[in-house]
Fold these 2 entries.
Entry 1:
Amino acid sequence: MPELRRDPITGRWVIISTEREKRPTSFKLTVERKGGFCPFCEGNEQHTPSEIMAYRSNGSERDTAGWTLRVVPNKYPALHIEGELNREGEGMFDKMNGIGAHEVVVESPDHEMTMAKMEPTHIENVFWAFRDRMLDLKRDKRFRYILIFKNQGEAAGATLDHSHSQIIALPIIPKLASEEITGAKAYFNYKERCVYCDIIAQEKAESTRIVEENPDFIAISPFAARFPFETWILPKQHSAFFENAQKKEYESLSKLLRIVLTKMDRALATPPYNMIIHSSPFYENTQDFYHWHIELMPKLTKVAGFESGTGFYINPTSPEEAAQFLREASLSG
Amino acid sequence: MPELRRDPITGRWVIISTEREKRPTSFKLTVERKGGFCPFCEGNEQHTPSEIMAYRSNGSERDTAGWTLRVVPNKYPALHIEGELNREGEGMFDKMNGIGAHEVVVESPDHEMTMAKMEPTHIENVFWAFRDRMLDLKRDKRFRYILIFKNQGEAAGATLDHSHSQIIALPIIPKLASEEITGAKAYFNYKERCVYCDIIAQEKAESTRIVEENPDFIAISPFAARFPFETWILPKQHSAFFENAQKKEYESLSKLLRIVLTKMDRALATPPYNMIIHSSPFYENTQDFYHWHIELMPKLTKVAGFESGTGFYINPTSPEEAAQFLREASLSG
C-alpha cells in the first residue's frame, strides 16, 4: 500500500509510492514504450485495465474498439482505491494510507492526434469526461480534492506518446491548491471581491498580457509568471468549480484552448507542456472567493531544480512579451 | 532592469529577468558552452567579470592564476546590485525593481574536479567562501535572504561543467523559506521545541532513515521526501544561521558531505543534483525555532512538471530504502 506522508515543517503531503518500479537505477512513473506498441490505441483495449467509462457512438461493447474517448484505471496507480482512510502518527510524523483514485483519460483512439489538432467538439468531450469523472469521484467522501492534469511530450513527464490526461483523487489538498485558497480568501476578506475576477478586470483594461479571449474565457500571461509562456485560462463568469460550468462554457473553453495550443505549437515549435485544472476542493466553502482556471506551462527551459527546492522562480521572458508573441502567432500553418 | 513581481494570489515572488537572452526559441540561464573553452578554468580569469574575492596562497594578483577558489559576479545576473529598492503597485499587482546580488563561486581551478572528489579541506574552503560572502552581503540592508545553491550536471540546470555554486542575495524571502519559518514557528509555539531538533532525535532513535552521521552532523532521507534519494544534512547543534557555525562544524560538515556525495556517485552512477543551503532570513527573530540545513536532491526522475504546478509530489522510492541503499554503498571505487 502506498503511503501519504506529511512534511512536519511545511505541511506538504507526498505520496510515497513503494509498489512502483523501484530499482534505484530505473525510475519510471508509468508504463514503458515497447517497440512501437501502444496500449492506448484502438484495438488494444485488452492491454489496459478494464475501462471505467467510454464515449461510444456506435453501440460497441465495453473494452472493444469503437470509442471516441476512454477512461481507464492507471495500470501503475500512485494511490489505491480500496481501503479505509487511516490517519496515524509515527512519533512526530503524520501519515495516511495511500487511498485515492488514479485514472487515465485516453483522449482519442488515434495515436497521432494531439489536443492542438483535435476538433473543438472533441476537446469538449475531454472536458465532459473530466466532469463526469469528477462528479462520480466526488461522491466518495474519502476524497477532498481531484487533480486533473495533462503531461504532453516526454520532457513534460509523459511516458506514452498517445494523447492522454490523468485524474488523481486525493484525501488531502495539494499544497498549491491550499495556498490559492488561503490567498484568495485573504484577498476576499480585505476587499470583498474575488482576486481572480479583479485580475481579469485589470488584464482587460491593460490588454498587454492577453493572449486570446472570447465571450466566456480569457487566456493571459499572468503578471508574475513563473515560466516563459506560462498561460492561464480563466472563465469570465465567477465560479469556484470546474464541474459546475455551463454547457456553452465548455464549448467556448474548447474553442479557446484549441487556439492557444495551436499558437503555442506554431510559435514555440510544438513544445512539451503541462496543463493543470485548478478547481476548488470540495468541503471548504470557497464559492465566493475561489475561481477555477487552467494553468498551461510549456516546457522551454531546463528547470534548474533549485526552483522546486526554494519555491523561487527566475523567468527569462516577460509576460508582456510572451503574450504579444502568442497573440501575433499565426493560426494557419 | 529586471523586476521582482508578486503573484497576487499566493504571494510568491518571481524574478522577471527581461535583459537576459529572450529569443523565444533560445532560453539559456547562463553562459553557453563554446567549443571546449571554459571561463572558469585557471588562466582564463579575464573571461569572467572581475573577482569579488579569491583564496590565494601564493600571493598572486587579483584576476590572475594562482587561486584555489574564486568568487565572481555572474556574467548574466538575474538581479542588479545597483539602485534603490523601490516597491510599487501596478493596479492590484505588486512589484519591486530587481535589486540583488548574483555571484558565482568557482570552487576549484581544476576543470575536472567535482565536489565529491575534493579533499574535505577544499570543500571546507567552499563553505568558508559561502560564509564570507554571506557576512559581506548581509551588511547591505536592502537584502533579506541569501540563497546559496549548486546545480551539478546539465540535467540539474548547470550550464557550465566546471564545478561552481551560486549565491543570490534577495530583497524578499523565497516562498519555501517562509513556509519553513511559518511551520517551524507554529511547531515551536505548540511544543516549545525546534521541529528540526525533534526530527534529529526521532531519526536517531529509529535509525532507518539515517544515511550517515558524525559527532556534529547527520544526513537523513527525510520522512516525507519529495524526490528519490533526497537527502538532508542537519547540524546536531541547534542554530538558525549557517554563517554562525563553529570552525569545527564546517570541518565536520565537509567530511560528511564528501562521504554522502561519494556514496551518491557510486550508488546512483554520478547523478546530476541540486544542493541548497537553507539558512534563516535576517530580520525574523528565528533563532529559537529555525534550524539551518542542507537539502540535496539528485535528479533521477524526469520531473513531471505538474509537481511545480500543484505543489504535490509522488516519490517512487521510500526514504527507508533510499537511506539503506546509500548507507550500504561502498566508498571505494
Entry 2:
Amino acid sequence: MSSLTTRELADLVGGELRGTGTRLIDDVAGLDEAIASQVTFIEGAAADGSPKTSAGAVILAAEHLGVLGDAPKSDLILVPAPLDAFVTAMLHLRPMPSAPDVGRSPQAHISPTATVGSDSHIFPGATIGDDVQIGDRCIIHPGVVIGAGCRLGDDVTIHANAVLYAGVSLGDRVIVHATAVIGADGFGYQFRDGRFTRIPHTGTVRIEADVEIGAGATVDRAMIGATIVGAGTKLDNQVMIAHNCRLGKHNAFASQVGLAGSVTTGDYVRCGGQAGIADHAHLGTGSSVGGKAGVHGRVPDGADYHGYPAGPAKEQYRIVMAVQRAPEMRRQIRALEKQLKQIQSLLGEADSHQPSTASAPAA
Amino acid sequence: MSSLTTRELADLVGGELRGTGTRLIDDVAGLDEAIASQVTFIEGAAADGSPKTSAGAVILAAEHLGVLGDAPKSDLILVPAPLDAFVTAMLHLRPMPSAPDVGRSPQAHISPTATVGSDSHIFPGATIGDDVQIGDRCIIHPGVVIGAGCRLGDDVTIHANAVLYAGVSLGDRVIVHATAVIGADGFGYQFRDGRFTRIPHTGTVRIEADVEIGAGATVDRAMIGATIVGAGTKLDNQVMIAHNCRLGKHNAFASQVGLAGSVTTGDYVRCGGQAGIADHAHLGTGSSVGGKAGVHGRVPDGADYHGYPAGPAKEQYRIVMAVQRAPEMRRQIRALEKQLKQIQSLLGEADSHQPSTASAPAA
Amino acid sequence: MSSLTTRELADLVGGELRGTGTRLIDDVAGLDEAIASQVTFIEGAAADGSPKTSAGAVILAAEHLGVLGDAPKSDLILVPAPLDAFVTAMLHLRPMPSAPDVGRSPQAHISPTATVGSDSHIFPGATIGDDVQIGDRCIIHPGVVIGAGCRLGDDVTIHANAVLYAGVSLGDRVIVHATAVIGADGFGYQFRDGRFTRIPHTGTVRIEADVEIGAGATVDRAMIGATIVGAGTKLDNQVMIAHNCRLGKHNAFASQVGLAGSVTTGDYVRCGGQAGIADHAHLGTGSSVGGKAGVHGRVPDGADYHGYPAGPAKEQYRIVMAVQRAPEMRRQIRALEKQLKQIQSLLGEADSHQPSTASAPAA
C-alpha cells in the first residue's frame, strides 16, 4: 500500500485540512476500528452522540466539526460529501485490481460462432454458447455459462458460476454476481388429467443497462414476451423475479425479496428484505415496500407500504400498535362486560324498587 | 420463423375459423403486445372487461366470442382450450431447439466407471463421478457436477452448474434447473461441550419421475433413509426442502418456500411463495398453503391454510379483517369505558336521590 | 456392507445388551422403517407413545427400557446417549468414503502462484486464483472458484460450484456447501442525480474455524473491514449474511434466514427458518429468534423473540392468542355497545320517571 500525509490526503479529496497535515496515512478503516495510520469518515447517524476514534485523519462535513470535541486527536478534513471523499481516499489507498489480462482463455469453452469484443476476458472454465455476442471490455469469470444466442453489451461483468439460459440480453455495464441465474423457465404449468404439464416458455429476459444482480438471484424468462429489469435497477442476493415481471428503472430490492409472476413496477421503487409481491401486483413509481411485507394488488405511486397483508405505513403502524395491545383489549372487554352485568343487575334491582317505571327494556 | 395463414393456423390447432383466413401469422405474442402478424389468445381473467388487441389472430373459447366486440379486427379461432391451442401454435412458430449433438464432450470430466445411455449429451465442463449411471436421452449442461454413485433415469435434463451430491437418484424425465443443489448434508448437529457437532448424514435423496426443481433450489439428504420428492411434483426457484422430508406426488411449491426437517405432504399439495413449514409438520392431500404462511402441526386433507401462524383460510380472513380494525376497536373500548363511567357516576348520583333503595351495589 | 451380531454391536457402542446377542445386523434405519437385519435407536420424542419397530436391534437409554413393551421383538442395547451410539454404529456399517486421491487434478485451473498444502485435493474444473493459500488436507470439489488471495486453513472442504470472491479467509475445518457464495460485494449504493452509484467494497469476509455454510448461502464482503462469521457457527442453506455483519461463535441459523447490513450477534444465538434481522440490529448472546420472526433493534442476552415485529416470546404468545380472538372481540364490543345503548335508553326513561333528579349526565 502507498501512503499519504494528511495534507496530501486533503488535497486528494479536495477538502479543508484542520490539523498537522503531517500524519502518514496508509489505509482506511471504520470509525471504531481506525488506528493512527488510517483515515475514517463521519456521516449521517455516525455524527450523533459523541463519536470517538483513534484514526489519524477523519473526513467529515463542516457542520459536524465539533462532534469530536474541541481538541480532536485526529487531523480533520472538511468536505461537503464525506462518503464521496472517503471513497476517493479508499480507492487511492486500496486501488482496485485492474482487469486481469486473460483474454480468451484456451481453457474456456467458447463456441466458434460466438463473437467477443475487444479487451474482453473469458476465464478458464467459462462456457460461451453458439451465436453469443459479447461486447467490449467484458469480464466473464470462471464457471460462467452463457447459453446460445445471448447478447451482452459493453463493460459487462459476470461473476463466477452465474448462468444465462439461451437468448437472454444484458445491457451495457450490467453486473451479474456469482451463481445468479437469468432466464430459467418460468413456473408455469397446466393442470390436467391429474398432473402438471409444463407450459413452454419461449420468451426471454431483457436486463437493461447499469443493472446489478446479486449472488444467487434468479430472474425467470417470460412465457411469450420478455421479463424486463429496467435500467439502473439493483437486485440484492437471492432475489427472485418470476416470469413476465416488468421492473421499471432504478428500483432497489433488498435480499430475499420475491416477485411472483407478471408483477410490474414503476421507477424508483424500493423493497425491503424478504418482501413478497403477489402475481400481477403493481408497485407504483417512487413507492416503497417494507421488509417482510406481503403485497397484493396495487401500491400507489409514492406510497410506503408495510405489513402482511401490506397497507399504507401509517395505518399499519397504528394496527401494529393496537395489535400489541390486543391482550390488554381482551382484559378491558372482560372488565367492561363484568361492570355492565353489575349495572344491569343494579338496574334490575333498582327497577324492582321503582314501581312507577312502566316500561322495561327489551331483552 | 415460418409463417401460416390464419386458416392454416385454425387447422393446425383444430379450431373453428371466424374471419378472412388469409392473414399471415409468423409469431405469437401477449394480448396487449401482439401486432397484425401475430397470434394471441384469451383465457381466464383476460376475458373480463373489454380486452383489446391488434393481433392478426386470436384463439379463444366459443363462450368468449363477444368479448372483442361485434366486428373484431382480428381473425378469431374458436377452440375448447385456448391455452393448449396457443401452445401448439407457439411451438410451431417458435420450434424448440433440438438437443444439441454434443455427445460425451471430451471437455467434460467423466469418470471411466460412469455409464451413460444412448443419445445422452454431456456438455463441456460437466463432471460425472465414479459409478454414476445416466439413462438415455439425458442432457447434462455445462458445469453440472454429479457425485459418485448417482443414478439418473431416461430423458433427464440437468441445467448448468446444478450439483448432485453423491448417491442421489433421479427418476425419468426429471428436470433440474441451474445451480440447484440436491443431496447436501442436512442441518443436523448435536450440541455438547458448548459446540455443535455434525451428525453424519448417510441417507440420500430420491427424486421421482416427472419432478421439476427450480433454479437455486436445495433438497437436503436424509440422515439415515431418504428425502423424497414424489412423482410429478414441481418446485419453483429457491425452494428449500430440508432433510428427511417426504413430499407426495403432484405437489407445486412456489418460489422461496421453505420446508424444515421431516415435513411430510400428501398428493396435490400447493404452497404459495415464501411459505414456511415447521419441522415434522404434515400437509394433507389436496391442501393448500397461502403465500408467506407459517405452518406448524397438521394441515387436514383438502384444507386451505393462510396466515402466520397459519389457520383455515376463512378464519384467517376474519382475523385479518378484525386486525385491520384493531385501532378502531381500541377507540371503541375507550368510548365504552368512558360511557360506562358516566353511567356509573349517574347511577351513584341517582342512587343518592333514591332513599327508598335499600341495597347498594357491591364495590 | 459389513455385518455384526447384536453382541458385537453392543460392544462396539459400549452398551448393555438385552436379548439374544446373535441377530445379524448389516445396516441402520429409522424406527418405522427398520427391518430385522437393521439397528435403530430411540431418543427424545420418539420414546413417547408406544413406539413400534421391526428392527433387529434398538439402541436406547435405560429409562426407556419399557417403551417397547415387556417382550420386545428386538435385541436392546442400553446406552446413556442413544444418538451418539447410533452414529457410531452407522459409521461402522456405512463407512464414509475416504478422501479421493485426486491430488492437484491437471484438469483444475490452478494459478502458478497459488500454494496448496499436503494431502489436499483439487478436483477437475476447480479454479484457484493467484496467490491463494490452501492448507493441508483440504478438498476442493469440481467447479469451485477461489478468487485471488484467498486463504484457507487446514481440513477445509468446499463443495461443488461454491464461489469465494478475492481475498476471503476461511479458518480450519470450515465446510462450504455447493453453490454458496462468499465475498460478493455488499448491497451498498449512493443515490444521487437520480441513480444508484455503487459504493466500492474493499473489505473482506473472515470465516472462522469450524464454521459450516449451507448450499446456496451468501455472505457479502464488508465495505471497509470484514464481515465475520464466528468460530463454530452453522448456517443452513440459502441463508443471507449482508455486508459488515459480525456473527459471534456457535450461532446456528436455519434455512432462508436473512441478516441485513451491520447486524451483530453474540455467541450461541439461534434463528429459526426465514427469520429476518434488520440492519444494525443486535442479537444478544444466548438469544433465540423464532422462525419467520422480523427483528429490529436489540434482542437482549438470553431472550427468546418471536413474531413480526418480534418481541419476547411470552408477550408474543399472548398477542397471537388475543389476535386469534380479534373477530370475537369485535362481536363482544358490538354487544357491549348495544347493551350500553339499552341502558342509556333505560336510564333516560328512568330519568324521566325521576323528577327529583336535578342533575343530568354531561353529553
